[in-house]
Specification:
Blueprint: H1 10-27, E1 34-39, H2 40-43, E2 53-59, H3 65-78, E3 83-89, H4 90-99, H5 101-107, E4 111-115, H6 117-153, H7 171-182, H8 191-211, H9 220-229, H10 241-245, H11 250-281, E5 293-297, E6 300-303, E7 306-309, H12 311-315, H13 322-333, H14 339-348, H15 358-368, H16 374-383, H17 386-390, H18 394-397, H19 411-422, H20 432-441, H21 452-467, H22 471-482, H23 486-493, H24 499-509, H25 512-529, H26 536-555, E8 575-578, E9 582-588, H27 593-603, E10 606-616, E11 619-628, H28 636-647, H29 651-663, E12 672-676, E13 683-691, H30 696-706, E14 711-719, E15 722-730, H31 736-749
Parallel strand pairs: 2-3
Antiparallel strand pairs: 1-2, 1-4, 5-6, 6-7, 8-9, 9-11, 10-11, 10-14, 12-13, 13-15, 14-15
Helix pairs in contact: 4-5, 4-6, 5-6, 6-7, 6-11, 7-11, 8-9, 8-11, 9-11, 13-15, 13-16, 19-20, 19-25, 20-22, 20-25, 21-22, 23-26, 24-26, 25-26, 27-28, 27-29, 27-30, 30-31
Length: 750
């Protein structure tokens, strides 16, 4: 059959289109007043291996058209080809196009296939003429539809499993560029856009061939196969070890190419929308009839709603800082840089010396701190290769995928987004410039072998020195990069009431200036990562840690052990107190109380974020901070009842706990146990890294209790689908054999 034509590329697509043309022409022999018109992929001669057909049966009011249509459609369906079809007169087709902008766009791809050519040509010519006359007026409605689609499908450049057709920067957006170019608004289909379009089409064709059916979403399990069909391979044998290390699979090579192509399409569409806006609103002109020019910064003027270079800047020997200064002006004014200006800067702006001149360094800080204007200005400069001239490391970082599901952006965009988020906290620190630069460089070590915080510190320090920072400030940038995960890791995985925890952080941070910079950086990093990376609970924990470390740095005083809740140490047992985010239980002292409480909470769909267990005057006390697992708080009366019954040894509750908890086990990579022997004052720390699952804390605490370990505290940290659970075990546990036995028991429970 026609769609059995194999192959990837323009020639294969045209071969499939020619085959469909011949087949459809045989189904509809030549006849006056009837024409078969192709739109969509067949209309453009861009037929995918498993694409569908979009056909219009155009007629001039001839009798028997319904029977003729059925005789045409049924053979197509019988052949197993997906079909989108309509039967219309010329007037009906033009009327629908006038009412529906999406139909108007589809008719721009219309192409005669069979039947009455004159009738088809009339439709094609009239639809195109009408679009040219009305496009400027109709584009706002089209833009609204487009932005709704973007919200639904996201940005292709930043998605690990993006839709090649519907996501922003995908094939559907190339159709918009073609429509805008047809209207004569701007030369939207520039060579770079055409090349990106062809590569995206090739990727879609390879995806169809890999999966064996029509599919537009590039799923993770298909990436390596698609990359193989396209002949994409990870670099090998390069002298640049860092460049090669930045890519770990053929699928990553594919993702980076798709991201670059999607950005090219998106940037061209932004330009096209602006050109249409200028046509629709009219240009601001002075008394001489020329567009108004307004100075906005040194060597930079606004001209017709865009930033261009002043004439004096073009005529003189270019300043190496010129591209950075116009980027900073674009970010602060939120005006786009004219395409001709970007092209001129890419061709003629000289490279920056090392170290940078003060004007370039000041412009970079202004750019990074510009807030909402930063991202579009940076993307524009990146599209024209200006960033590579500022930062040679950018080539390695550009479009690098981040496979952790909590990340919503590629690495390069994440760094820029973090700088944007850091601009919200610049008034809280003594050195806002170092906060912005540290935020921008904090993940520069990703893609290199080793821990990215450790390997990234010297890279960031070298960049800071090249930018022109004094040696002590460059060293501080390195410290920020090396320690940028310290505060969230400690806050969520360690006991903040333990003096050893606070002393350890204070020793590593060293001073309050660095502490404040790290606090601003961690909040910016989390906001740039995505919603799953932060919560009010984590924010409170980090703020609490920062406050205690600040006290330790200022006064040398470490926190005293917390006093138990007075309500738990008096009155008849058991005691159960419930608040919105806290569950407190007191019972007669016995082993396994923490496990029992954790099981009850799991039974009622509550996640434990932190747990503390202690014994006071023969009473066992357990205090847990909790949050609903699925966003809906449980009924407090059944929860309180189950807790009271369970801590009193009710066997029926225990059986329910075990049945529910053991039925819900996590999946993924093998769990792992890590020991920390000097992380607590009076305990050894057992850290479990495993897949998240309901009832996990119950199972593990049961295993620890049955193995004879007493848990003083637990801290639960969730990272996407994984958890890092830290358990403070009373006693030193110095024996290797005993630790191995305990570790085996924990892993068996997971």
């Amino acid at each position: 059959m026609i769609n059995e034509v194999v192959g990837i590329g323009e020639a294969a697509r045209r071969e499939r289109a020619a085959g469909f043309d011949a087949w459809l022409g045989a189904l509809l022999p030549g006849r006056d007043g009837i024409a078969l018109v192709a739109v969509g992929g067949l209309g453009r001669r861009q037929c995918a291996p498993h694409g569908d057909l979009d056909l219009v049966l155009l007629h001039a009011g001839v009798p028997g058209v319904d029977e003729l249509a059925a005789s045409l459609w049924y053979p197509i369906w019988d052949a197993g080809v997906r079909l989108d079809h309509s039967v219309r007169t010329l007037a009906e087709a033009l009327s629908v196009a006038q009412d529906d902008v999406k139909v108007a766009l589809a008719l721009l791809d219309a192409r005669f296939v069979a039947g009455d050519r004159a009738l088809a040509d009339t439709l094609i010519r009239t639809a195109a003429d009408h679009w040219r006359r009305t496009a400027v007026r109709r584009l706002p409605a089209l833009r609204e539809i487009t932005e709704s689609r973007w919200r639904a499908h996201g940005e292709l450049a930043f998605l690990l499993e993006g839709d090649l057709k519907e996501a922003a920067g995908g094939l559907r957006d190339v159709g918009l560029l073609r429509a805008i170019a047809t209207a004569g608004i701007t030369d939207a289909l520039r060579p770079a856009v055409r090349a990106a379009h062809l590569r995206l089409l090739d990727t879609r064709d390879a995806l169809h061939q890999q999966v064996g059916r029509r599919v537009d979403r590039l799923l993770a399990q298909e990436r390596d196969g698609v990359a193989g069909l396209l002949g994409l391979r990870q670099p090998g044998g390069s002298d640049d070890a860092q460049q090669a290390a930045a890519v770990v699979s053929d699928g990553d090579v594919l993702l980076r190419r798709v991201a670059g192509d999607a950005r090219t399409v998106s940037h061209a569409l932004d330009d096209a929308w602006r050109a249409a806006d200028r046509l629709r609103s009219g240009r601001r002109r002075g008394g001489d009839g020329r567009p108004v020019r307004r100075p906005v910064a040194r060597d930079v003027v606004e001209h017709d709603g865009e930033l261009v270079l002043a004439r004096t800047a073009i005529g003189a020997r270019p300043d190496p800082s010129l591209s950075l200064r116009i980027a900073a002006a674009a970010a602060t004014t939120r005006l786009p840089i004219a395409r001709a200006t970007c092209e001129w800067l890419a061709a003629y702006c000289p490279p920056l010396p090392a170290p940078w001149p003060p004007a370039a360094r000041a412009a970079l800080i202004t750019l990074l701190g510009a807030g909402p204007g930063l991202v579009p200005a940076w993307e524009t400069c990146d599209r024209y290769g200006l960033i590579d001239g500022w930062l040679p490391e950018w080539t390695r970082l550009r479009s690098l995928p981040q496979h952790n599901p909590v990340h919503r952006f590629t690495l390069d965009r994440h760094l820029v987004q973090t700088a944007y988020e850091a601009s919200r906290h610049t008034r809280e620190v003594d050195r806002p410039d170092l906060l912005l630069l540290g935020a921008f460089l904090h993940d520069i070590g990703k893609g290199l072998p080793g821990d990215h915080s450790t390997v990234g510190a010297p890279v960031a320090e070298a960049v800071a020195a090249r930018i022109g920072l004094p040696a002590p400030e460059a060293a501080l940038i390195g410290t920020l990069v090396r320690l940028h995960l310290l505060l969230p890791d400690v806050a969520t995985r360690r006991d903040l009431d333990d003096p050893v925890t606070i002393a350890g952080v204070a020793e590593r941070v060293g001073d309050t200036t660095t502490l404040d910079l790290l606090h601003g950086l961690v909040r910016a990093d989390a906001a740039a990562t995505g919603p799953a990376a932060w919560s009010d609970w984590k924010g409170r924990l980090v703020a609490e840690l920062v406050a205690r470390v600040r006290t330790a740095l200022d006064t040398g005083a470490l926190p005293a052990p917390p006093a138990p809740d007075p309500a738990l140490v008096a009155g008849p047992l058991p005691v159960v107190h419930l608040t919105e985010d806290r569950v407190s239980v007191a019972a007669a002292d016995r082993r396994g109380l923490l496990a029992t409480v954790a099981g009850c909470l799991a039974l009622h769909r509550l996640e434990v974020l932190a747990a503390d267990a202690s014994t006071v005057d023969g009473r066992a006390l357990v205090e847990c901070r909790v949050q609903p697992r699925y966003g809906l708080a449980p009924d407090p009366i059944p929860l309180s009842t189950d807790l009271r019954r369970a801590v009193n040894g009710d066997v029926s509750v225990t059986q329910r706990l075990r049945g529910r908890a053991l039925a819900a086990r996590g999946e993924g990579a093998a769990p792992r146990v890590v020991w920390h022997r000097e992380a607590a004052t009076d305990a050894v720390l057992l850290e479990l890294r495993a897949a998240d699952a309901a009832g996990l804390l119950y199972r593990v605490t049961c295993a620890l209790d049955e193995a004879g370990a007493q848990v003083r505290a637990a801290r639960i940290s969730t990272l996407g689908g994984d958890v890092v659970d830290a358990f403070y075990l009373v006693g030193g546990w110095p024996s290797d054999a005993e630790r191995a036995r305990l570790e085996a028991a924990v892993l068996a429970a997971v």
